[in-house]
Write a structure and sequence with these properties.
This is Peptidase M43 pregnancy-associated plasma-A domain-containing protein. The chain is an alpha/beta fold. Helix content is 18%, strand content 19%. The chain has 6 helices and 19 strands.
């Protein structure tokens, strides 16, 4: 090759190398010595710190902002819904579930509900047959204790007027709240489950047909039938309870067009009448909020809607949550090694460490417990968006922001929007 063409070839190689895409902050770590030797308290000046602050009501939360991110699941901890159970009966014990047998069955039902919520079954029906991820639900029931005792909150009531439940028919009492008003316990902090059965004359009639399970959500409680009328394995009751809790957390029936989720295609809801050959993936629904013998799956949108309701500090549902976020878990810090953008509200219980090469953008309400702080390592970035509200929701303080400093003087980077809000920081 002549010197002329050799020079042109070398020039071409240099141009190609210059045009090659460079890694972004999230793809590569900054060069240099970024070993943290100390953390310094950092108090940004250009943010809001109102003394009297009203948390804004999120009119239309986006479900996608509240869907668990499997790459950063530590930033989406499991929620625990406080529940208690009431077993209704007659004064002469019409139904066999009483005493320890009744209590054990109630515990088994709650455990089966939790087992079901921990599973991630595939979603049978989706829009245009697209494959939807079966995300972790990050939700469990917490069976509370009776006040002042270590005994599970399972109550037995013997009342000849209020023991029965009829879901349909001339004497249906599904919408009656009298039993809740009479026997509800800790309605301001626990979701009450009422296990009920058919009235005596129906139950003892030879012509009475014992139907399947049914239930209804009524404000601070859920009434269910099918629990007491005959012996059923706990797994037959758990789909019903989880379905009604879905209603309590803002979910509608999935077969409807107006359920608020684009990933739940409308359908005729005829699973019970379909032959076996027409049931299964792509044919029938196994969604928890439909009616079928396979009520089990939840779409990403549905999971997001439930957690949006639980994260809303103005919502009825939030008062049922066991406030695990008030306890500081110093031994379980959250390490962020890749970029993360937080839009939906979060309640965390540990320190946050933004490691070198990672960016955390906070544009949501974020609770941290007393003692927990946000640490920004050299080479890491913290961005506070205009929707950022960092606070402690337990009438305490949180540890504030701390900037990591290396031996060479490199520091973590914090960029705050003037509209960001920081409340009750520790001094």
């Amino acid at each position: 090759m002549s010197p002329k063409y050799l020079s042109l070839a070398l020039l071409l190689v240099m141009v190609i190398a210059a045009c090659k895409a460079r890694p972004t902050t999230g793809d590569a770590k900054p060069a240099g010595d970024f070993t943290v030797v100390r953390y310094e308290a950092y108090r940004p000046d250009d943010v809001r710190r109102p003394t009297d602050f009203q948390f804004p009501k999120e009119a239309r939360p986006r479900p996608e902002d509240y869907q668990p991110d499997t790459a950063h699941l530590g930033f989406f901890p499991v929620r625990y819904l406080r529940v208690n159970v009431h077993i209704m009966n007659t004064t002469d014990t019409l139904y066999p579930y009483s005493g320890e047998a009744g209590a054990k069955y109630a515990r088994d039902v709650i455990e089966q509900c939790n087992t079901m919520l921990r599973r991630r079954p595939p979603i049978w029906l989706s829009p245009d047959s697209t494959e939807l991820p079966a995300l972790p639900r990050q939700l469990q029931f917490h069976l509370t204790k009776k006040p002042g005792t270590e005994e599970h909150a399972i109550y037995e009531h013997y009342d000849d007027d209020l023991y029965w439940y009829l879901h349909t028919g001339k004497n249906a009492n599904r919408s009656s709240t009298e039993v809740i008003k009479t026997y509800g316990i800790n309605l301001d902090s626990e979701l009450n489950f009422f296990a009920m059965g058919p009235p005596r004359d129906s139950f003892l009639s030879k012509s009475f047909r014992i139907s399947g399970t049914a239930g209804i959500y009524l404000g601070d409680a859920i009434k269910v039938s099918g629990w007491l009328a005959r012996q059923r394995p706990p797994w037959e009751i758990s789909p019903l309870l989880n379905h009604e809790v879905g209603h309590a957390l803002g979910l509608q029936h999935a077969w409807l067009r107006s359920d608020g989720c684009d990933d739940t295609p409308p359908h005729a809801n005829k699973a019970w009448s379909l032959p076996d050959s027409e049931r299964g993936p792509g044919k029938s629904s196994n969604n928890l909020m439909d009616y079928s013998n396979r009520q089990e799956s939840l779409t990403p949108c549905q999971i997001g809607r439930m957690h949006a309701r639980l994260s809303d500090i103005h919502s009825r549902a939030r008062k049922w949550l066991f406030p695990t976020w008030c306890t500081y878990r110093a031994d379980r810090p959250l390490e962020l090694k890749t970029d993360l953008n937080l839009e939906g509200a979060r309640d965390l219980d540990a320190d946050i460490f933004i490691r070198r090469g990672a960016t955390l953008r906070i544009n949501n309400r974020l609770h941290l417990p007393q003692g927990a702080a946000i640490h920004v390592d050299p080479g890491g970035r913290l961005l506070l968006g205009p929707g950022a509200i960092i606070h402690n929701a337990c009438e305490e303080t949180w540890g504030g922001i701390r900037v990591g400093v290396s031996a060479t003087g490199a520091r973590g980077e914090i960029v705050a929007d003037p509209a960001a809000v920081l409340l009750n920081e520790a001094p």
